[in-house]
Amino acid sequence: MVTNEQDKDGSFNESVSLEYVKARLEINTEQLQCPQCDLQAGNLNWFEFRTSDASWRHLAGRQGFYSECPVCNVEVNYIVTKKN
To answer: Model pTM?
Structure first.
């Protein structure tokens, strides 16, 4: 389960709204839906993530957004906004 707290390794996953994601990215969410149950983007759980500080020091850092279906527990979409 994803929490809104920083993990022991320095990474984090934080719940955010679809509106928050749309304000930071130019994405069309009309076609986004769960591949298993067809739940639409507005009903998915959206998260902002950042990998650990160690991953950034080793040039493997990633930051962005992803969505999960609360019904099927599957990742629906994954968007990297920063990487090194």
So the answer is: 0.81
